[in-house]
Hints:
Layout: H1 6-9, E1 12-13, E2 16-17, E3 34-39, H2 43-58, E4 62-63, E5 72-77, H3 82-101, E6 106-111, H4 117-126, E7 132-134, H5 142-148, E8 154-156, E9 177-181, E10 183-184, H6 195-199, E11 203-204, H7 207-219, E12 224-228, H8 245-253, E13 259-263, H9 272-280, E14 287-289, H10 297-303, H11 309-322, E15 327-334, H12 341-354, E16 358-363, H13 381-404, E17 410-418, E18 425-430, E19 435-439, E20 448-456, E21 461-464
Parallel strand pairs: 3-4, 3-5, 5-6, 6-7, 7-8, 9-12, 12-13, 14-15, 15-16, 19-21
Antiparallel strand pairs: 1-2, 10-11, 17-18, 17-20, 18-19, 20-21
Helix pairs in contact: 8-9, 11-12, 12-13
The chain binds S-adenosyl-L-homocysteine, iron/sulfur cluster and FE3-S4 cluster (F3S).
S-adenosyl-L-homocysteine binds next to strand 15.
Amino acid sequence: MHLPNLKEARIRTKNEVEYVYLDNKNSQEFSNKKYYLKTYGCQMNVHDSEEIAARLESLGFTKTTKLEDADIVILNTCAIRENAHDKVFGFLGRCKHLKREKPELLIGLCGCMAQEESVIAEIKEHHPYIDIIFGTHNIHELQQLILENKHQQEINVYSYEGKVFENIPYTRESQYKAWVNIQYGCDKFCTYCIVPYTRGKQRSRKSSEIIKEVKELVAKGYQEVTLLGQNVNAYGKELPDELSFAELLEAVSKTGIARVRFVTSHPWDFTDEMIATIAKYENIMPYIHLPLQSGSDRILKLMGRRYTQKEYLELFHKIKEQIPNVAVTTDIIVGFPNETEEDFNETLKVVNKCQFDGAFTFIYSPREGTPAAKMVDTISLAEKEQRLAKLNEIVNKYSRLNNEKYLNKKVPVLIEGINKKDPNKVFGYTDTMKLVNVKGSKDLIGQIVDVTITDAKSFSLDGEI
Ligand code: SAH
Ligand code: SF4
Ligand code: F3S
């Protein structure tokens, strides 16, 4: 197989890389071979896996969901918390076992964990059966890494941040809703968070490229796009003359796509202009994920979050007042180093005031290399677990109360697939991102239908067309 610019591609100085796009759809090299791809972590990784799938398929591999059938296994990993690490190495144990029976099996590991020096050291020392290790900055090299691998460990992980990629091939999981990257990396450096280290500095895509991609998706019949970034509302800040996030939202809305979503927004970059734009355009969904992390000003400061409780609440109420029927969800960390009972109560106070539609709650997990990991922590894990349980109880109460407001109402739902437990039902999401199970057949998949809500639970709704 012809590898264009291979030599140039090997010159890897920071910010000066020759990119190789091996997008050879006709390659027969691995036809009849199967790939098994497992994805951990956030939407960013889910979308990266769509690129990984496309690159594997360009070499002739086809997808399998049975590990035992695989000729190559790729684990796209997450580093956000310690338990993510444990899950990956647990699964690798299964892969190692399989490789004993099937020595030709290729095992690959990529994603945020691969960007951690300590993980690379661990792999080198204890996991020689992993063949291909690549990072978040060189997914585009995957075909080359596979073609050149001689069933021995090759580690190709870089810390360079490089330029922004365009024309990336994707095998999208859905024919109706699509992820669209608008920026890579993050510049916020919240003191607990590993993402700026694993994903690098913020790099925004050009708005013209984003709009081009959305228009192509519209032409293919996509109903929904989700603009993706760690900090979407800081979009374009590092590019001179680029649109603001509100202007980008407006431009995406005007492509005519039925639904526009975006994750994740940082409260610090949330502008009045954004609120006005979301309120103005019907196809921009009234759903905002607005991570709080903590309600205590003291902890927020230690976290480097750049807002106070008062500022968060002001923003929250502005959003609620100005965007009709908006749903707001959040992320909360309990047990940040030396979080006192008083600090925790401040978090509960905000949760009680905001009554979020939903919240992802986490126990703080120290991440090597981050400033918070060096902070002395005197709070026991048992204490943190108690706080988490208490928080979850309150969070779930508000989820249910918010869901109950939907009873007997008619809401638009984009039907996405067949209910896994009941084949006579399909499921989809409301404009406000509520999961709804509906009686109906697979013919509805891909359509936005009006559904009357008949039952409300903490985490989902039931409805009828
Ligand atoms: N960019 C997004 C979130 C990225 S990570 C934002 O800024 O909101 C998703 C969530 O994981 C975070 O919102 C935070 O609540 C949680 N998280 C991040 N680092 C963590 C850590 N070290 N321990 C526990 N939770 C963490
Ligand atoms: Fe992490 Fe903060 Fe960036 Fe979110 S904004 S990815 S929490 S550093
Ligand atoms: Fe995890 Fe990396 Fe996302 S650390 S949360 S997969 S950016």
